[in-house]
């Protein structure tokens, strides 16, 4: 193996209107580079990420939005996402026994073979990023957090925009690598709907409320006035806004792409078109509540001081609680219709 290797032209991965869920974004980037038939809505839906909502009941947790929480088995989301590209999935997890050299060996082998690798962490939190090259022990690629101010000391940039970092192993949130592994059969409609119902089902996984149960936990957090004390310092309110905004992002990106995917499935499965379109409509209703009601009341999609102060107002949070109940009802309606379709398949 060489001391350096680079894959040029891997599409950039960054938050924006085209997506805000890192793992599906990374899969789309890798797939496009390899010339695979890639569709973001398909990856979102078939990975299960489009149907997720998670709320940690133990704290205001900035990690709620991570798609790894979609299923109770985190590896299932990674594997299903790869199958959306028609590929298998190999995962190397970091444990106390894992050596840095094991990570480097996998990365160098894949890059030398012309395949990008997905890393969890590398820069910032343990979200997915694309590794597109190496220079000695330094890694290069795309990470949605690469330009954040808090990462400047550990990151430089190549001429094509790739991050360059040698501090990736020292980052405690660097927890794994995901590589493609041969061809795999695509998910069937039955599997997709079964997985969607699994993700949407209300349950507790440790301290995490998941599926439709996450709506109740989110609402309870907003209705707890002691969590928004009068005269609260701005950093505390920023934390509250971050978690609330992440839940909005999760639903906006997820339910929109779920609806888009299901409408496409309705065209491919005319015998079940009515039901599939009804499920899509339920998810579109979630998006409508977000965009037509919650966002205007918050004062915009941004997370500036205006929105932070609005969220702290009791009457705003109580209005949001009603919207959250209605979005939950939409997801429950979608889940019921999917169960009916599954019965008929």
Write a concise keyword list for the protein shown above.
345 residues, alpha+beta, three-stranded antiparallel β-sheet, 10 helices, 14% strand, globular
Q: If you had to describe this structure to a student in words, what would you say it looks like?
A:
Strands 1, 3, 4, 5, 6, 7, 8 and 9 form an 8-stranded antiparallel beta sheet that branches. The chain has a 3-stranded antiparallel beta sheet with strand order 2-11-10. 48% of the residues lie in helices and 14% in strands. α2 packs across α7 (234-268), α5 (189-200) runs antiparallel to α10 and α7 (234-268) packs antiparallel against α8. The mean pLDDT is 96. The chain has 10 helices and 11 strands. It is an alpha+beta fold.
Outline the secondary-structure elements:
Blueprint: E1 4-6, H1 22-33, H2 40-47, E2 54-56, H3 74-83, E3 87-93, H4 100-112, E4 117-120, E5 128-135, E6 138-142, E7 156-157, E8 163-165, E9 176-183, H5 189-200, E10 203-205, E11 208-210, H6 213-223, H7 234-268, H8 273-298, H9 305-312, H10 314-344
Antiparallel strand pairs: 1-5, 2-11, 3-9, 4-5, 4-9, 5-6, 6-8, 7-8, 10-11
State the helix count. 10
N- to C-terminal distance: 50 Å
For the residues shown, what is the average pLDDT?
A: 96
**Strand percentage:** 5-15%
Overall SS class: alpha+beta
Task: Bin the helical content.
Answer: 40-55%
Could you spell the SSE succession in H and E letters?
Answer: EHHEHEHEEEEEEHEEHHHHH
Tell me the major beta sheet: 8 strands, antiparallel
Number of strands: 11
User: How would you sum up the global shape?
Assistant: globular
Indicate the radius of gyration in whole angstroms.
Answer: 20 Å
Integer tally of domains: 2
Low-confidence runs: none
